[in-house]
Amino acid sequence: MGKQTRIIIIDDDQDACELLKLQLEDTGRMSISYHTNGNEAFDIISQNLPDIAILDINMPGTNGVEISSALSANPTTSSIPILYLSGMLTPDEAEDMGKGENNPSLISKGSPIEELIAAIDTLTTT
After folding, report:
1. What does the pLDDT read at residue 92?
2. I need a labelling partner for 59 at 20 to 30 A (CA). Which of 2, 99, 107, 110 fits?
3. Which residue, 49, 87, 81, 51, is CA-closest to 68?
4. 44 Cα distance to chain centroid
5. Cα 98 from Cα 101, distance rounded (Å)
6. What is the average pLDDT across 50-55?
7. What percent of the residues of the chain are helix, what percent strand, and what percent coil, each to the nearest 5?
């Protein structure tokens, strides 16, 4: 088996994290850890240095955008690709918002798992 993509998911919804972990690890190409506390996310990501971080945009305390900003400002973590998840957007809205060169990758939690896998593959192979 080849190298697995190491992914950290930060989302306050534990059930969503567990489901994503199962679905992504089922590919056999990804190793997933998740944490439900956005306030601890920067430290967790800094210590583990994943291949990609998947961040829920809307969380109590520190949200995904704030976590991403902190990661971008730190030379140790600034190169970690970020993929945002949102349960507040439909898949079509997320796709429209994610278009353009300077926009972050954004996936709706309602999107098919294949779209999430394709986005992960794109961000980790560039």
Report:
1. 55
2. 99
3. 81
4. 14
5. 9
6. 96
7. 40, 20, 40
CATH superfamily of 5-124: Response regulator (3.40.50.2300)
Instruction: Tell me how far apart the alpha carbons of residues 86 and 105 are, in angstroms, rounded to a whole number.
Output: 11
Distance CA 95, CA 39 (A): 27
Q: For the CA atoms of 37, 110, 82, 94, what is the dihedral angle to 10 degrees? A: -130
- Other beta carbons within 10 angstroms of residue 97's beta carbon come to 15
Tell me the residue type at 122.
T
Q: For residue 115, count CB atoms less than 10 angstroms from its CB and return exposed for 0-12, middle for 13-18, buried for 19 or more.
A: middle
Residue with tokens 């590919």: 27
Nearest-angstrom CA–CA distance, 57 and 43: 18
Going from N- to C-terminal start, the domains of the chain cover 5-124
